[in-house]
Amino acid sequence: MKTTFDVSDKLFELYHRVHRLINQSMTEEGVSLARSKFLFFLNKLGPCRSTDIACALNFAPRTVTEAIDGLERDKLVARQPDPEDRRAKIVSITDVGRIALEAAEHPRKQLIEEIFSALDDEQLDQLHEIVSKLVRRTDEIRERREQEEAVRPAAAAEA
C-alpha cells in the first residue's frame, strides 16, 4: 500500500515533468509557459495595470514589472499611460503577442492530449474527481489558516 507521501511525491514528479516538457515545446514556438501566462491573462481580460496582473497571478509586483519589460522589448505587449493615473501604465497584448500566444498554445494542447491519452475515459473521470477533491480540501485548509491568522492579531491585541 502506498503512503500519502508516496502519492504526493509522484504527483509533484508528474507536475514537474509535464511542466518542463510543455515549457520546452512552447519555448520552441517562441513563448515560454511563464510568458504565456501573462499573455493569456492580457488576451482574456484586456488592457490593465501591472498591479492588477500581479494580484491576479499572485506574483510580486517586481516580478511582473521585469516580465513586462521583457515582453515589451520583444513587442509582445505595449504600455500606454493610464488616463486615470499619470504615474501608472496600462499594459496590453499586441498583435505580435497574440500570434505568439496562439503558436505556443498548439504544442501545449497537443502534449496534454498525448500525455492524458494514457488514460481511458473512466480513468480520466476518476482522476478528475480525485484531483477536484484534493483541490477542495486544499481550499478548505487555506481558508481555515487565513481565519486562524486573522484571529491571532485580534487575540494578541486583547492580551
Automatic annotation (TrEMBL):
Keywords from the named record: DNA-binding, Transcription, Transcription regulation
UniProt GO MF annotations: DNA binding; DNA-binding transcription factor activity
Stretches assigned to the HTH marR-type domain: 8-136
Alphabetized PROSITE patterns for the sequence: HTH_MARR_2
InterPro entries documented for this protein: HTH_MarR-typ (IPR000835), WH-like_DNA-bd_sf (IPR036388), WH_DNA-bd_sf (IPR036390)
This protein's record includes keyword DNA-binding: yes
Pfam families in UniProt: MarR
PANTHER family attached to this UniProt entry: TRANSCRIPTIONAL REGULATOR, MARR, TRANSCRIPTIONAL REPRESSOR OF EMRAB OPERON
Name of the protein in its database record: MarR family transcriptional regulator
